[in-house]
Amino acid sequence: MVKSLSARNIVKHYGGVVALSDGNLDVHTGEVVALIGANGSGKSTMSKVINGVVVLDRGQLLLDDKPVNFSSPQAAKNMGIATVFQELSLIPQMTVAENIWLTREPMTAFGTVNRNAINEKTEQLLSLFRGTYKTELRPSDTVGSLPPDEKQLIEILKAISFDPWMVILDEATASLDSRQVQRLFELIGDWKKAEKAIVFISHRMEEIFRIADKFSVLRNGKTVGAGAMKDINDKELVKLMIEKESVFSFSRACSTEEKKDKPVCLEVKDLKTDSLHGVSFRVREGELVGIGGLRGQGQRDLLLSLFGDIPYTGVMSIFGSESKLRHPREAMKQGLALIPGDRAREGLLYIRSILENLQLPSWAQYGFPLKIGKAKRDANMAAESLNLKMAGLTEPVSSLSGGNAQKVVLGKWLMRKPRLLLLDDPTKGVDVGTKAEFYALLTQLCNEGKTILFYSSDDEELIGLCDRVLVLYDGTIRTELSGISLTKENLIAASLGATNEGAI
Fold it and tell me: Least crowded by CB within 10 Å, which of 14, 98, 273, 434?
């Protein structure tokens, strides 16, 4: 039996901010609808209205053409609607099984939790992604000990554990590697055959065209286009999203040849950590060097060790001087900055103001008593240079869209005027317009003589932006790609360990 859900003329305000002004969406069983739009366009708000997390101001939800009102997430869940949000809802101190079945634990005849039943059901769910985990996951594993991609998989399993007829995936692939995305898409195919409806939210065009049957585009809180994927191309979609021709383009700084004579600003020899097994490379002034490979091959350890955040062995020379970094403070003093991609957990204090977040690493330079006026002026200049869309510096950073929040993460470090930037997947879950601003800024920084080491889970970014790419595989640099060898085919092959061509 075909089921449907429709959102009609949805309006939602958060104080003076209009999140949705005329949002519309139609979803039927047996199809995947891509909900598309720039950060701040209203996609997540639309999801939360459908899921009962927020109450709409005006408009109407229709379930099988009949008006319905979801007063809470539980009310939506009771009607068979599940949502996997971009920000995880898992409890780190609890096990995988406890997180999945929280408040729905099977009970014994004696009124106690049936642990055997919970573990058996959890094993069945975990088997859906078997072969994509770093190590075999168990129901008893503590969620807090898992890497981000596996936490996201548990979030997905938690959502489908009660067999909903409709699943909303809000940037659910942003933390996953290619194997995990492939498996998720296989499951989505199975869900379609089982007459489930899927709303798919992603900033990755390749994924949208690969998995979706229909699209619905939001721009500034209003639905501006909808139809079948077969009737539109990527350029037309982006034009709908941003009201102008695609800005999703790349431009490198000065050529790689020009940089060969620049001084070496970072040299690493035989760097080892728990995940790295002898990494050696050098980076010159003004270079933008990419770090590629499947997620979990040591990229994060590399950046954290360079920032003095985890112990390592090996030799590290920064700006010509051998250094042994034991703490991020030491790295900061030497002109390094680490910009994380996980802004919720590592980048921002969401309950604090935009001003406080921008100045977080820099308050000490404003003296005692605090020169708050100068701090505000500097923060305003940084916000303007980043084209930060905000109501004011005193607003909480949680009021910003995902792309603007990520600008704050970048801005707070740029205010320290670093010489070497370490970027850990900074555009994850960021819309194409904001990405283009990031790309232009990175190019500008390199032209000014800054050096950037850039990890990205997006192959197109690495190919389009970087002078060269170091591909990590099993904790070592498998290959260095540059020039004509820097292609998607070579990058994927090296990521899978399929070639040694060009290896360092």
Answer: 14
